[in-house]
Amino acid sequence: MRCKALLLSLAFVGVQSLATADEKEIAKGKELCEQKKCAICHKEGSKTGKPMNQLVQGRTDEYLKGSLVEPKKTIKPDTKMPAYKFNDEEVKAVIDYMKSLK
């Protein structure tokens, strides 16, 4: 019985740690989007780009990463989307933030 209680306690702590990590990742992604002023083009009613909460629908993380770091190659050659020099950790944070907006 003690073993089950210990395992349940450890699982609970693990889930809490993941939630905290996810929240930190999302907050970091939000901060990066605010710094880069993504909402200027990606807001409701914008004629420049889709709202951020719609960008992830039906798209893989790999596509979203390419859209951030190589938009002319990933989206289309004449896109107005600028290329960002995000590292892999920052890209993941931005994608996690966008996914949280659903």
Category from helices, strands and their pairing: mainly alpha
| Fourth CATH level, the homologous superfamily | Cytochrome c-like domain
**Helical coverage, percent range:** 55-70%
Unreliable segments (pLDDT under 50, ≥5 consecutive)? Answer: 6-10, 13-18
CATH architectural grouping? Orthogonal Bundle
Count the strands?
Answer: 0
The description of the largest β-sheet is: none
Kindly report the oligomeric state of this protein.
Answer: single chain
What do these coordinates show?
The chain has 102 residues and is mainly α. The chain has one domain (2-100): Orthogonal Bundle (Cytochrome Bc1 Complex, Chain D, domain 2), CATH 1.10.760. 63% of the residues lie in helices and 0% in strands. Helix 1 (2-35) packs across helix 5. It starts with a helix and ends with a helix. The model is unreliable at 6-10 and 13-18 (pLDDT under 50).
List the helices and strands and how they pair.
Elements: H1 2-35, H2 52-55, H3 61-69, H4 71-74, H5 88-100
Index terms:
102 residues, mainly alpha, 5 helices, 0% strand, Cytochrome Bc1 Complex, Chain D, domain 2
Short description:
With 102 residues, the protein is mostly helical. It has 5 helices and no strands.
